[in-house]
Amino acid sequence: MFFESSMTKAKEVFGKYAFRKIKHGDKRRNTVNRSLLETFGCALENYDLQVLKNAKEKIVNNFKEELSKDSFFEACISVATNNIDRVHYRFAKVEEIVKKAIEG
Question: Does 6 score more than 80 pLDDT?
Fold first, then answer.
């Protein structure tokens, strides 16, 4: 149930770009990123679907912004993804992205 709910929420927020690296102005669709699947899958599950729908534009924009300005975050979802410090960082960063969008 948790997995299905998370996948539904991710599709609602990100559409066809769910679990993919997306940057401002980038129109191509990258492959699914396992690190984003696990982090957004967990982070989105903490919120009601309607709350996420209301904040989805902000969530997507926050994600794009962090991906472009925080090179360590991009590295944490791309290289040596099993390093415990990188795991902790990316989970914290994704939670921050979502929380900031919802709470303002």
Answer: yes
Spatial CA neighbour of 87 closest among 76, 98, 95: 76
CA dist., res. 42 & res. 38, Å (int): 6
The total of structural domains in the chain comes to 1
Enclosing domain of residue 33: 2-103
d(CA 52, CA 10): 9
pLDDT tens column, 30-73: 888 999 999 999 999 999 999 999 999 999 999 999 999 999 99
User: Residue holding tokens 């149930």?
Assistant: 1
Q: What sign has the CA pseudo-torsion 86, 88, 33, 21?
A: negative
At residue 33, what are phi and psi to the nearest 5 degrees? -105, 120
Place of tokens 């997306």: 22
The whole-number pLDDT of residue 29 equals 77
